Amino acid sequence: MSSEAERKTYLNEHLGYEMFMLRYTAQTLPQRHQQLDWNICVESFAVHARVLYEFLTNDTSSQNFRARDYVRDFKAPKTNDTKGIFDRVHRQVLHLAKNRSSEAAGKIILADVEKAKQWIEDHFKIFIGSLEEPYRSCWDEHAATPPQNGLSPCSLLRGSHPLRAASRSAFLLRAAPLLSVRAHFDFHCLSHSVTRVRTALKVMMPMMRVRQRMNSRDAGSSEDARRDRHV
């Protein structure tokens, strides 16, 4: 049984992050013209969309928070559209499914992303509107909304850029099936996962190196300041 403080922290921090990343990846997908950039964003979207879908429908174990932990009897209704989309998400992105499609008709497309996002937005709005105190005042809609005109270079250098988070999500998503592969696997799907892991790493590594340089510079400045105080 979770405490009130735990529920407030989860609502303010973790749910806010999930909505932020869902919105960010959905709004940037139309700008991703390179196939591998598209893959990174759509896979990150799939991770955050599934988390929120399972939260709103209570379709997750008691080890995870559910909407009904905040609003008694709340349960977002599934539709044929959402069932079909999230079946494809599980099959095409989240698992090395035996029935994973190689045909375009079986893959996740922008229309799927838009439908899934709209369903989540509609029912999340109802959920937030149903909250009572002390939870309602914990929700910060502004913090869960990415800017429409991009982010400042400062946010990139400090490691808070959503693209880095999206790349990390895609990397972890692709690494997980590789860790669970045993003797029997589909070589085509496996090589596809390896390619996407490498692409995610290429995006993440320059950002990590910039951040490391900044941390080293800050550490050097702090050391100089300490020496000045002792002179």
Rounded Rg: 20 Å
Oligomerization status of the protein chains: single chain
Overall morphology:
globular
Judged by helices, strands and strand pairing, the structural class is: mainly alpha
The largest pleated sheet is described as: none
| Helix run count | 7
Number of strands: 0
Q: Helical residue percent?
A: 55-70%
User: Termini distance?
Assistant: 56 Å
Strand content: under 5%
The helix-strand sequence is HHHHHHH
Low-confidence parts lasting 5 or more residues at pLDDT below 50?
151-160, 178-190
Provide the domain count: 1
Arithmetic mean of pLDDT: 76
What does it look like?
Helices cover 66% and strands 0% of the residues. With 231 residues, the chain is mainly alpha-helical. It has one domain (4-230). It is globular and about 45 Å long.
Q: What's this model, at a glance?
A:
This protein has 231 residues and is mainly α. The protein contains seven helices and no strands. The longest helix has 44 residues.
Topology:
Elements (H helix, E strand, L loop, with lengths): L3 H25 L6 H23 L22 H15 L15 H21 L22 H5 L4 H19 L6 H44 L1
Descriptive keywords:
231 residues; mainly alpha; 0% strand
